[in-house]
Amino acid sequence: MALVLGIESSCDETAAALVTTDRQILAQRIASQDEAHAPYGGVVPEIAARAHAERLAPMIEAVMADAGKDFSDLDAIAATAGPGLIGGVMVGLVSAKALAMAAGKPLLAINHLEGHALSPRLADPALEFPYALLLVSGGHCQILMVEGVGQYRRLATTIDDALGEAFDKTAKILGLGYPGGPAVEKLALEGDPAAVPLPRPLVGSGEPHFSFAGLKSAVLRAKESEQHADADIAASFQQAAVDCLVDRLAIALGKSDLPKALVVAGGVAANQRIRSELEKFAAERSMRFVAPPMALCTDNAAMIGWAGCERLHMGQDDPLDFRARPRWPLDPKAEPVRGAGYKA
Ligand code: KG4
Ligand code: ZN
After folding, report:
1. Could you report the per-residue pLDDT of 256-290, keeping only the tens digit for each?
2. Per-residue confidence (pLDDT) for residue 343, from 0 to 100
3. How confident is the model at residue 338 (pLDDT cuts 50, 70, 90)?
4. Which residues, chain by chain, have CB under 5 Å from ion ligand 2?
5. Is the CB of 298 under 6 A from ligand 1?
6. Domains in the chain and their CATH numbers?
7. What is the pTM of this model?
8. Does ligand 1 have an atom closer than 6 angstroms to the CB of 239?
9. What's the Cα-to-Cα distance from 222 to each of 41, 85, 168, 218, 233, rounded to whole Å?
């Protein structure tokens, strides 16, 4: 059994966790910066980096104390090294390098997306490779075939916005504040999902990619028309999003050679309506549906510690001069998609 310290600081959550290769989370702490960013309706990179710099070192100390562990007890130190807001990523990665150097332990520079992609295996020991993964977060919207640790085949990505971004923008349009996903989901419970006619971008197209920019604009027009209740707009938006996910997944996975499991990860995977529709989708295809617990879906350090455990188990580590990467696709061989920008 090996013990890994995980550090996450790529967006607006500062987090540290102690995770073991036998799937125990010995301690974890997370500090959200929602309040600091709320006045701006989104994450301000400079504010985020400063907050990570203030909070991370005391948080690591606290996590070690919570578990009654010393740095000499660690087998490796894992930190998110990208993709993400570079200032924050550098705070986490440099802290991990300093600890690795001082304690004489291996460094694991983790791709944040790999953290999301492997997190379901932390919660579910029975989940074996390969599995299909729908990764839906604030910065990413992808369908991947997870074939092994470090082996990811991208089947689809977004050509414009990520789904979490669309939830956040819808929340902003409806005056619900930031972060928007949970607020839109809550309001949608009171609305009629069929009340507002909204587009389902790319639905029906033979390529499995996503697009949410047009949906977001349609939400804005619906709000500005003053003809609909906010709850109906929220419910109709969520329904359109669900319809897009299900249609795109069906195209990406095809009809034959389906993997045994469909897994959803990333912050948007916390959405109950999306979970239940995906569960139905999987059941219709005799696939097992796996959704990690909520706390493992949104950004957290346990998933980074776990990705570290998986890579340590494979005998991997990284050099102390590993560079923070603002962009870092999980599947470098995937063909660029027109318009996909940094979300590729
Ligand atoms: O994975 P995550 O914590 O951070 C990124 O790596 O992006 O995802 C955050 C995103 C935000 O856009 C947030 O609005 C969305 O996940 N989100 C949700 C829900 N909870 C969080 N979206 C829809 N429904 C939710 N319940
Ligand atoms: Zn994330």
Report:
1. 899 999 999 999 999 999 999 999 999 999 999 99
2. 42
3. low
4. 137, 299
5. yes
6. 3-117+298-313 (3.30.420.40), 128-291 (3.30.420.40)
7. 0.91
8. no
9. 20, 32, 16, 6, 7
